[in-house]
Design goal:
With about 200 residues, the protein is α/β, with parallel strands linked by helices. It contains four helices and twelve strands; from the N terminus they run E-H-E-E-E-E-H-E-H-E-H-E-E-E-E-E. The strands form four sheets. Strands 5-2-6-7-1-8 form a six-stranded parallel beta sheet, sandwiched between helices. It is globular, with a radius of gyration of 17 Å. The structure holds adenosine-5'-diphosphate, magnesium ion and zinc ion. Magnesium ion (MG) binds next to helix 1.
Length: about 200
């Protein structure tokens, strides 16, 4: 009966470096669903409360209501049966269980849109986004504007010193950089007052 199956379920990833418009694009999609009165739920990891606890907010100050959840299990439990579209921002801050949760939601006919960093500041794959890219029907790779030269910003450059993988939303801690301007040796500089806000 292969032609009678429901193919509404769908996974889409919006990835790219910081400042590439991932949150903007996610907010645009979620907002369109709301306008169309399609039941939609939006989630974000609980650790990310840089701008607002109950909203996804882009660097350009677009915003949409979102539920903070601590784990992929919590996300799954928070899903309403009636929900047709699930938006997830900052997917790289979720546990690896997000991959199975997303698979399961898509298998049940929901459309999942996940935004997140595909690489960390050393250009290493950033899980679970990397695996989600492999599982998704559609992957949108976004480019930022290189903060240094204006070229195609593909990487996230850390510009302050830290041994932590995540320096969360520290003002001026990151820049988007193109292939030519990315320099993993660079963070030796102290905070340079490059703080663009
Ligand atoms: P992301 O979620 O990928 O970090 P956002 O959607 O929050 O990105 O923000 C994208 C917006 O950030 C752009 O529309 C623009 O207004 C602003 N912005 C600031 N710096 C840059 C940059 N270097 N390249 C592109 N957009 C930038
Ligand atoms: Mg974002
Ligand atoms: Zn550059």
């Amino acid at each position: 009966m292969m032609f009678r199956r429901n193919h509404d379920g769908w996974v889409e990833v919006i990835c790219g470096p910081m400042f590439s418009g991932k949150s903007e694009e996610l907010i645009r999609r979620v907002t369109r669903s709301k306008i169309a009165r399609i039941p939609v739920q939006t989630f974000k990891p609980r650790l990310d409360d840089r701008f607002s606890a109950n909203e996804v907010v882009s660097h350009s100050s677009l915003r949409v209501e979102a539920t903070p959840v601590a784990t992929s299990d919590d996300l799954l439990r928070a899903i309403d049966d009636a929900t047709e579209v699930v938006g997830i921002d900052e997917g790289q801050f979720f546990d690896q269980g997000l991959v199975e949760v997303v698979d399961q939601l898509a298998a049940s006919g929901k459309q999942i849109i996940i935004a997140g960093l595909d690489t960390d500041y050393l250009r290493r794959p950033f899980e679970p986004i990397s695996t989600l890219c492999d599982r998704a029907e559609v992957v949108n790779k976004m480019l930022a504007v290189c903060h240094k030269c204006g070229g195609p910003g593909m990487y996230t450059q850390r510009i302050v010193n830290s041994d932590d993988l995540v320096v969360l939303g520290a003002q001026g801690a990151y820049e988007a950089r193109c292939r030519m301007c990315y320099d993993p040796e660079e963070p030796e500089q102290p905070e340079l007052g490059l703080d663009a806000g």
